[in-house]
Amino acid sequence: MRHLYKLCLVLLTLPACAQQSAYQINSYQTEGRKAPNTHYLGEAWLNPLIHDDEDLGYNITKATFKANSTLDWHRHATAQVLVIVEGEAYYQERGKDPVILREGDVIKCDKETEHWHSSTKTSDVTYLALYGGGAPTTWTEVVTQEYYDEVAARLSKE
Question: Is-above-0.85 flag for pTM?
């Protein structure tokens, strides 16, 4: 009887194991890996959730930046959409004034538009970035701590 019980237990758990292996499931809740300190100031974590393939055509990456952290100026060969899911961010396109993005905000950056985005001086930010695959990001100019601080001071007065 004891062996029959063990056999039943094994047989009942097999379908659950098989079902899990049939899907590729990534967790949004995972913090991700600490990004190497290139093309940004501060601390950042990246969690690639969905990778571009011939059927999908775009990537989805969760990014978390600690307060007082910023990406450098850059552009993408495809449009990019940022969905702010927690915290606050600075966002600026070349030739335009910077703005503060807050939880729930969604912004689209057209392809080949030079821009930068970051956490704010006092708030971490977590966002989802949706962007096409293929060509890598083109990094164009460093966002210096001095420039970042000027933007933070200007936006804190608004």
Answer: no
> Please, are residues 93 and 115 in contact by the beta-carbon 8 Å criterion?
yes
List, for residues 87-138, the tens digit of each pLDDT value.
999 999 999 999 999 999 999 999 999 999 999 999 999 999 999 977 888 9
Q: Which amino acid is at 73?
A: W
Three-state SS for the chain is CHHHHHHHHHHHHHHHHHHHHCCCCCCCCCCCEECCCCCEECCEEEEEEECCCCCCCEEEEEEEECCCCEECEEECCCCEEEEEEEEEEEEEECCCCCEEEECCCEEEECCCCCEEEEECCCCCEEEEEEEECCCCCEEEECCCHHHHHHHHHHHHCC
Q: Which residues contact 153 (CB under 8 A, 6 or more apart)?
A: none
The answer to whether the CB of 82 falls within 8 A of the CB of 116 is no
* 20-42 pLDDT per residue, tens: 568 877 777 777 788 877 888 99
